[in-house]
Design goal:
- The structure is a single chain.
- The protein is an all-alpha fold and about 180 residues long.
- It contains 9 helices and 2 strands.
- It has a two-stranded antiparallel sheet with strand order 1-2.
- Helix 5 runs antiparallel to helix 6, helix 5 packs parallel to helix 9 and helix 6 runs antiparallel to helix 9.
- The longest helix is centred in the middle third of the chain and has 28 residues.
- The radius of gyration is 19 Å and the shape is flat.
- About 10% of the residues have low confidence.
Length: about 180
């Protein structure tokens, strides 16, 4: 574990990879909040009454104030998932540049997919999951879960943690010589 943390420090202290991790994490967070507020954003953009500056301000408010749509646990979990995604992307970018191959990227994509399925509110359930199932089936499934769908988000975080750990382990103890 110590070697993995040391490998993470060595990789992420390099500006290229640190900026990749931060940028990807922020981008994913904004994308998740934008998707959850898409109706409000579309209403603001389609309005003839509001000028361009006000439309831009409204879109920025909708994208940067997730507390309108989510509770504190969901916001924290989305931030953690976004941060792990950014770190994982930067680590896989590093491995790809150094070794030319990435072994555990599928785990991080799987974790991201599961985590994003869990995004939603208690009233409507997970809106992405609802697109795969009928609305009534999603409501029935979500109602049986004790955290009302946040289990999927937390499962995605666990899968992302495992994928990040395995990537760090491969960087710390590579099969082929990869320079850190």
């Amino acid at each position: 574990m110590r070697l993995s943390l040391l490998a993470a420090y060595r990789v992420l202290r390099q500006p290229r990879y640190a900026l990749t991790a931060i940028g990807a994490g922020i981008l994913l967070f904004l994308l998740i909040t934008m998707v959850s507020e898409y109706r409000n954003i579309l209403s603001a953009v389609a309005s003839d009454v509001i000028d361009f500056r006000m439309k831009a301000r409204l879109i920025a408010i909708f994208m940067t104030t997730p507390q309108i749509m989510f509770d504190e646990l969901t916001i924290a979990a989305i931030m953690l998932l976004s941060g792990l995604f950014g770190i994982n992307l930067a680590l896989n970018y590093y491995v790809l540049r150094m070794a030319g191959t990435v072994n555990y990227a599928s785990g991080s994509l799987f974790g991201l997919a599961i985590g994003v399925l869990g995004v939603g509110c208690a009233a409507c359930g997970s809106f992405i999951l609802a697109s795969f199932l009928s609305v009534s089936a999603t409501a029935a499934v979500i109602s049986f879960l004790p955290l009302r769908g946040k289990e999927l988000l937390l499962t995605g975080i666990v899968v992302m943690l495992i994928a990040t750990y395995r990537t760090l382990k491969s960087i710390a103890r590579p099969v082929c010589p990869v320079q850190i």
